[in-house]
Structure formats: structure tokens, C-alpha cells
């Protein structure tokens, strides 16, 4: 946040030369493209920014399982079911890597989960839209995972080591997700007129919410400038959105589909696809909890968390038993040493 950044610099100036030196050395490491690791000194604001970003990212992976999980039992073939199951399991894994990366910053996973369940923490606005037909599973893989890749590839070079390393593996899996989604769309578009109409309908509903996934326009983005200085974020929201549009429009045309934007046009001078105005009021409403599925998603998450309590308790009891057994076995040996 720009104002926060100024305040942070003011605070450093007030804290004296020693503190200012630490900040300068930290920034120099960032400029030199060194990775910051959990035990390294870091400014408190850097730590807080990462905790917020990584935990929001983790929550998005976990909540993102819900709209697609909805179609596992109704997948049109065994092959589709197996691929969708694998994809949804991957998303659970992404959530776990990311909660683990957040924990290296000194926060407890339980607290982060509580923040999600009681509504203090945000997750991606996109997962508050419904999956009405099988074509939505294709559209999500193609567009939502495609947008996620645009966002996440630059995060593989994020200055914070554990986040950057988690993103490398996640991006490989996201690429599989995007392809399986596109392949579903391709199959539908080469199918019957009804199937093609289903694919078109899914594109019509998911296109604009996907453009919103990149966050508010740069002119209104609160966190961008300081995150860029810290090399957490390498491209602005608008830059990433444009990259996504440029990559995705030719793919849609290859499918023979039309984008729900009469202003979409190729600008030969810039080499970019120009697009119409995004309805930011819709985005604000969804973030405020008033999207089509916000309440349903959070209810499902809370129910799943409550239903899984016995698993967490049993896992903890089992880990405790193993640890006691290991220390009992190691006891006499270490005493002898
Ligand atoms: Fe993911
Ligand atoms: Fe994914």
C-alpha cells in the first residue's frame, strides 16, 4: 500500500540509523535477486504482506475445490472423472504447500483457517460463481486455471524462498489443469450443436469474472507498489490481465467461440487485444460476500472443517504416540552416549 509504504519509511527514519541500515541491507539483497529465507531478518511489513498474500492464496486453492467437486459424481465418463478427481486433489495439495509456506513466517495454520472460516480472510472472487453444467468444468480449467498460471508464473521468482519454491511445483500442475479444461472445451465444441452451445454459455458466464480475478485496476490497487519494490509481485494487475487476454482470445477463436465483449478487438499497433470495461461494482459485491455462491461456499467449508475434526484429532494423537515411542527407544541410547 502506497501510504503504508511511506509510513513504513517514516517509521524506519524514526527508529534510528541501525534499523535504517538493516532495511537498506534487506532491500539490497532483494535488488540482487537473493532469496529471503525464513530465518533471515525481514521488515515486519514484508512478513505481514506475505502472510496475507500466501494465506489468501492457500484459501483460494481450498475453496476452489468446491465448485469442481460438485461435478465429480456427474462427470460424463470414467476418464473425465479420474482427471477431475486428480485435479481437485492437486488443488488440496496446493493449499497444503501454501499453508506450510505461510507457517514459515511464524503464523499457525489453525489461525489462518479460523480467519477463513469466520470471514476475516479473503479468497479469490472467482470461486463464488456456480458451476451449472459440465462445460463449466472445461471453462474453469481453461480460463480460471489459465488466469492462475498468468498470476503464478512470476511468483516462481518471488523474493521469499519458500513461496517461490512452492509455486514452481504448483505451476507445473496448473498447466495440466489448464490443458484438461481446454480439451473438455475442444471436445464440446467439436460435438453436437447442443454441446457447442453449452461451451459458449460457459464462456459467456466465466469470461468477465476471470478478468476480475487479476484484481482491481492499477489505478486503484492498494498493495502493488510496495510489493513490486520487494519483488513479491513482478507485474501489475493490469499487465497480467492483458497478458491473459492476449493469450486466451486466440484459443477461444480456435474453439470457434465468441467472447461476450462487443468491444474486443485486435490492435495491430500495440499487438494487444483491447477489451471493454469491467463491471467493478460486481467485483466489489462478490468480495463483500454478495456473490451468487459466497454463503454456500463458506457453509460447505465450515461443515467440512467440523466433519474433519476427528481426523485432525486422531492424526495428532497418532503423531504424539509415535513421538513418545521414538523418545522411549532413543532414551537409553542417548543416556549411554
Ligand atoms: Fe491450484
Ligand atoms: Fe488448478
UniProtKB/TrEMBL annotation:
GO molecular function, one term: phenylacetyl-CoA 1,2-epoxidase activity
Any single GO BP term: phenylacetate catabolic process
Pfam family, one: PaaA_PaaC
SUPFAM superfamilies per record: Ferritin-like
Region (Disordered): 1-20
Assigned GO CC terms: cytosol
Name recorded for this polypeptide: Phenylacetate-CoA oxygenase, PaaG subunit
Amino acid at each position: 500500500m502506497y501510504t503504508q509504504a511511506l509510513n513504513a519509511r517514516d517509521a524506519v527514519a524514526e527508529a534510528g540509523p541501525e534499523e535504517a541500515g538493516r532495511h537498506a541491507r534487506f532491500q539490497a539483497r532483494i535488488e540482487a535477486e537473493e532469496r529471503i529465507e525464513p530465518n533471515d531478518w525481514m521488515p515486519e511489513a514484508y512478513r505481514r504482506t506475505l502472510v496475507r498474500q500466501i494465506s489468501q492464496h492457500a484459501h483460494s486453492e481450498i475453496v476452489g475445490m468446491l465448485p469442481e467437486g460438485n461435478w465429480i459424481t456427474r462427470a460424463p465418463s470414467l476418464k473425465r472423472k479420474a482427471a477431475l478427481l486428480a485435479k481437485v486433489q492437486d488443488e488440496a495439495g496446493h493449499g497444503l504447500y501454501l499453508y506450510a509456506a505461510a507457517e514459515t513466517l511464524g503464523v499457525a495454520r489453525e489461525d489462518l483457517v479460523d480467519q477463513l472460516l469466520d470471514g476475516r480472510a479473503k479468497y479469490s472472487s472467482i470461486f463464488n460463481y456456480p458451476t451449472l453444467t459440465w462445460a463449466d468444468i472445461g471453462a474453469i480449467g481453461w480460463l480460471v486455471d489459465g488466469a492462475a498460471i498468468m498470476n503464478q508464473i512470476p511468483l516462481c521468482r518471488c523474493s521469499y524462498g519458500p513461496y517461490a519454491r512452492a509455486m514452481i511445483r504448483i505451476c507445473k500442475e496448473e498447466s495440466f489443469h489448464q490443458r484438461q479444461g481446454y480439451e473438455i472445451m475442444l471436445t464440446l465444441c467439436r460435438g453436437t450443436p447442443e454441446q457447442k452451445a453449452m461451451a459458449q454459455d460457459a464462456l459467456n458466464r466465466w469470461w468477465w469474472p476471470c478478468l476480475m480475478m487479476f484484481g482491481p485496476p492499477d489505478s486503484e490497487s492498494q498493495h502493488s507498489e510496495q510489493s513490486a519494490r520487494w519483488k513479491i509481485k513482478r507485474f501489475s494487475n493490469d499487465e497480467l490481465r492483458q497478458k491473459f487476454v492476449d493469450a486466451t482470445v486466440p484459443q477461444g477463436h480456435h474453439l470457434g467461440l465468441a467472447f461476450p465483449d462487443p468491444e474486443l478487438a485486435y490492435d495491430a499497433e500495440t499487438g494487444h487485444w483491447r477489451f471493454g470495461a469491467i463491471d467493478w461494482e460486481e467485483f466489489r459485491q462478490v468480495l463483500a460476500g454478495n456473490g451468487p455462491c459466497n454463503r454456500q461456499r463458506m457453509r460447505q467449508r465450515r461443515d467440512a472443517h467440523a466433519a474433519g475434526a476427528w481426523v485432525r484429532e486422531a492424526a495428532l494423537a497418532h503423531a504424539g504416540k509415535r513421538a513418545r515411542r521414538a523418545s522411549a527407544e532413543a532414551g537409553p541410547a542417548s543416556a549411554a552416549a
